[in-house]
Structures
1.
Amino acid sequence: MYESPQLISAINNIVSGIPRGKYFDSHFVIFCLLKNHSDTYFRFIALFANSENTVLTAHGQLAQEIGRCSSLVRKMDEESISFNIHTNSGSCALWQRI
């Protein structure tokens, strides 16, 4: 596990701003990171620069970081479909703000 206190703080801020009961997906959090915490996002992505699939690996790790906000979110059994940063549609983790 890659520890990034700045990333954890940014994710907590994003998730805390979502109204309770609302559903969101990992791509939503990634877009919020890019929009409002881009330096933190890019520093985190750089940790995976030597991975074969840098973005895919890093975004999988980001989903795990969202899950660490267990007092704020519940991971749903279902997945969402949304656009990724490459504007391709695909499945990703679906969360509910609790």
2.
Amino acid sequence: MPPVASSKLNVLGLVGIAACLLAFATLGNVAAFRVVGVVIILHSAYVLITRSVPVGIKGRPASFYLTGASAISIGILLGVIGVLLVLYPGEASRMLASTPS
């Protein structure tokens, strides 16, 4: 991937993380899980469009790329997770944001 495209993706990734953090800090858990779901759906769309998932250690070049059917499967799985978070944020909040009693 060319450096310009890579830097744009890094900025978009940071914007997504910032949106999630801001949502949790200001909106509450239920609305924040909806925001996380939307960010995951957008990432899923990107994976399905590019049909490529880099695998490796953060900060280093990718060791290899998942392509083809495996990338499409990961994109669909991400999309399903994102849609579930958007549709059922209360359940996600109870399961993921609660502390054990």
